[in-house]
Amino acid sequence: MFGCGIRAFESGQASRADHGRAEAEGKSVASYPRLNSCENRMGVGMSKQKLNIGMIGSGFIGKVHSNAFRQVGHFFDTPYEVVCKVICGRNRAKLETAASQWGWGEIETDWQKIIARKDIDAVDIAVPNALHSTIAIAAAQAGKIVLCEKPLASSIEEAESMTKAVEHTPNLVWFNFRRVPAVVFAKQLITEGRVGQTFHYRALYLNQSGNDPSKASTWRYKRSEAGMGAAGDLLSHSIDIALYLNGPIKELSALMHTFAPGRDVDDATLLMARFANGSIGTFEATRYGVGCQNRNTFELNGSKGMLSFTLDDMNQLDFFDATEPANLQGKCSIAVTALDHPHGKNFWKPGHVLGYEHPFIATLGDFLNSIGRQEPFHADFKDALAVQRILHAIERSSASGGWVSLDGNAA
């Protein structure tokens, strides 16, 4: 039975603690032997260890996750052979269709039975937000690896409990845009100092789903099931990208608005933010961005240049180099598809573009390798908790009409 991933995770924590203790005591690090990882214990040339997945949820995002589970071994050399063991949901007919289409070995209608199974190594949570907490905590207590869709939870209290529960087990949150090669390349350029001191960060996430009357009865539009509306669904992505690229947010002022009468979640959220690095930011997320099906963009202006990205053209990154002579300055659009670009060696030949599904595959591939190498992985539950705290502050700011500090006090 699988347990190697968690043992490797815990061993990695122990070895890092030993390393720090040795340095603090002035001893040689070699005096604390490093435990072998699961990957090393398997040995060169040995078959990969099976990782049995139990996925709870069979909707749209369940299809996306299923594709990642099926495809990861084609693009990433990980220590594990991913097995789509069992898929769980409430509608048996829908489950049978999903299992047939995506190659799941079994179906189940009771998620607690999946948690109780000894042959399930990892639990993937792809259900409405209000169900995340109960399932994730139960899975962690059962010693499972835990993967969870974003946002992490429907409340800050749930998110904090979930993060504490998974402290000793590998965990992942599907903030997939962190693995878009153009976004990773933007992070690389920022880290290299190519943008200089950041002045402005601005982000938009616009879709038009709220203008479709048929969506009104679905779970994403109910506070009891989603917790939030556009803020949790769309803005959470924008916030995670901003934290990844530009660092922590110190304080914010927000406006949440609902266009549909009687709806109890936000249809649109506007946000002004001050970052810890001294820059300022603006964010807009709406489900009433008519004409935009799924427009996710950011732009960052610094003392040495500018970066700009849109999901509408996800293989491109716009870069302006302000250090060039004035007569040579101009925005260039970089096709982030070369072999030496992020994940360039994992997918297709240079110039062959990626699609929406590939960042999910890359997320999973990096996660599995992080377990084998005993390395930290991001985005994890702690990263998602940071996003949840900002979402909580947004609600408080919108209700009070004022600025809110991320330390919990009014600014």
Describe this structure in words.
- The protein is 36% helix and 22% strand.
- It has 411 residues and is of the alpha/beta class.
- The relative contact order is 0.14.
Write the layout of secondary structure elements.
Elements: H1 4-24, H2 38-42, E1 49-56, H3 60-75, E2 80-88, H4 92-102, E3 106-108, H5 111-116, E4 122-125, H6 132-141, E5 145-148, H7 156-165, E6 171-173, H8 181-191, E7 198-206, H9 223-226, H10 230-246, E8 249-257, E9 268-275, E10 280-286, E11 295-302, E12 305-310, E13 316-321, E14 332-335, H11 358-373, H12 381-400, E15 404-405
Parallel strand pairs: 1-2, 1-4, 2-3, 4-5, 5-6, 7-10
Antiparallel strand pairs: 7-11, 8-9, 8-15, 9-10, 11-12, 12-13, 13-14
Helix pairs in contact: 3-11, 6-7, 7-12, 10-12
How would you sum up this structure in a few lines?
This protein has twelve helices and 15 strands. α3 crosses α11.
Fill in the keyword field for this structure.
single chain, about 400 residues, alpha/beta, Rossmann fold, Dihydrodipicolinate Reductase, domain 2, 2 domains, nine-stranded mixed β-sheet, six-stranded parallel β-sheet, 12 helices, about 20% strand, globular
